[in-house]
Specification:
CATH architecture: Up-down Bundle
Structural class: mainly alpha
Distance between the termini: 23 Å
CATH topology: Four Helix Bundle (Hemerythrin (Met), subunit A)
CATH class: Mainly Alpha
Number of strands: 0
Number of helices: 4
Order of helices and strands: HHHH
Radius of gyration: 20 Å
Helix content: 55-70%
């Protein structure tokens, strides 16, 4: 069964009431940010390194470099999501679904602190993406 985001009066004002509670989420996001930055730096160093190879044999690390480049792109995307969540904390809008403007359940934020949408809205967005990809 697909859950549909209930239509309620949107919450548009800053969530100043929950700002002290957001310190935990902020620390988790900052720790995740540090980890991502370290991993990005490590992968970028690997990609910058020169590999000696024989032209007739090809690049022995080509597959590994392709995987590293793909991983780097994913980590950079995740880093941007973390940065966006930290910005929402500073603005006082953290934990508010960007689509329906309702609070994102604490359980979802605990699992995915960078969540931008409630589960119902996320499902709608994913369905729309799948339909547009055909």
């Amino acid at each position: 069964m697909v859950s549909i985001c209930p239509i309620r009066e949107p919450i548009l004002e800053k969530d100043e009431e929950h700002m002290p509670e957001r310190a935990h989420e902020r620390e988790r996001l900052l720790e995740e940010r540090r980890t991502l930055l370290h991993e990005i730096e490590r992968i970028e160093a690997f990609l910058r390194s020169e590999v000696e190879f024989e032209p007739e044999e090809g690049d022995p690390d080509l597959i590994e470099r392709d995987k590293a480049a793909s991983l780097l792109a994913s980590l950079q995307e995740r880093l941007q999501e973390i940065e966006d969540a930290l910005e929402h904390i500073e603005e006082g809008t953290y934990g508010i679904c960007e689509r329906c403007k309702q609070p994102i359940p604490a359980e979802r934020l605990e699992i995915m602190p960078e969540a931008r949408y409630c589960v119902a809205c996320q499902e709608i967005i994913e369905r729309q993406r799948r339909r547009s990809s055909f």
